[in-house]
Amino acid sequence: MKLKGQVAIVTGAGRNIGEEVAKLLSSEGASIAVVDLDKARAEKVAGEINAAGGKAKAFICDVAKEVDIDATVAGVAEAFGRVDILVNNVAISDNKHMLDITTEEWNRTIAITLTAPFLFGKYAAKAMIAAGNGGKIVNVSSTSGYYGRNRAIAYTAAKGGVINLTRSMAIQLAPHKIRVNSVVPNKIGSPVGKDDFDPNRPVKNLVGRPGLPIDLANAILFLVSDDSSFIVGSDLFVDGGCSTLMPGNE
Ligand SMILES: NC(=O)c1ccc[n+]([C@@H]2O[C@H](COP(=O)([O-])OP(=O)(O)OC[C@H]3O[C@@H](n4cnc5c(N)ncnc54)[C@H](O)[C@@H]3O)[C@@H](O)[C@H]2O)c1
Fold it and tell me: N or C: the chain end with fewer CB closer than 10 Å?
């Protein structure tokens, strides 16, 4: 077991990618804080992990609220005694053109997709430093953080921010033995904000199928385990190779 005795916070763990990450880290011995705004989803995932012999607790938290983040990290440290791993997974997409998005929609997307990973990172890092065991943080970005899109504006800006946030976090937390990296997925499971997985979701990548949540969970497990102990501040593409394709020259 790669994470025996460690405690992992997974945000947005109520479904899709976050759920898979929570279950995979549990199967490697970590105790899991299943963080989600949706109580029923969080409790279901935590219940399934416990029923499978793991250790998990649901934490209901709106990552748009700093008080919730502060209380959640404190609650995890109290319930499990320490914090070793943070997976900043929650995001929402605006799916808007810049001429149509309202300032309120822009601010909410940035708050949940960019500010929340910063704040969760800040509070979790303080808990890791207090425990004195170092730690690992993975921020979930997106290929939307590397490229412009016609149907999203705040989401693409936020995800680009997550990639460079990761680099500064990695530099600032390295003295505390906290390793920070990001993952850069494309089309994994159901689209962001949706429930239904379409295995025939159209993709243009080198593998020829959409990603499964386990594809990203495996990459995140690698980045939070000692297998990646020399990898810091990097952005790992988990996109079936779609980013290597030059548009118009396939
Ligand atoms: N699904 C994809 O194809 C894809 C592609 C690229 C990147 N990503 C990234 O992967 C991550 C996970 O995506 P997903 O598709 O699994 O998302 P999802 O929409 O399926 O699940 C997100 C979870 O976060 C929860 N949540 C939403 N707002 C919240 C809030 N304010 N506070 C707490 N919890 C909240 C939801 O209840 C839900 O359970 C995101 O960062 C996303 O940007 C996904």
Answer: C
Instruction: Report the C-alpha gap between 21 and 218 in whole angstroms.
Output: 8
pTM of the entire predicted model: 0.98
Percent of the chain that is helix, strand, coil (3-state, to 5): 45, 15, 40
Structural domain includes residue 249? no
Q: How many domains does the chain have?
A: 1
- Output the CA 113–ligand 1 centroid distance in Å: 9
Residue-range definition of the domain harbouring residue 72: 7-243
Q: If you take atom 29 of ligand 1, which residue's CA is the nearest one?
A: 37
79: tokens are 């319930």
Identify whether 21 is part of a domain.
yes
Does ligand 1 come within 6 angstroms of the Cβ of 219? no
pLDDT of residue 165: 98
Task: Specify the higher pLDDT residue, 125 or 199.
Answer: 125
Residue 1: inside a domain: no
pLDDT digits (tens, 9 = 90+) for 25-60: 999 999 999 999 999 999 999 999 999 999 999 999
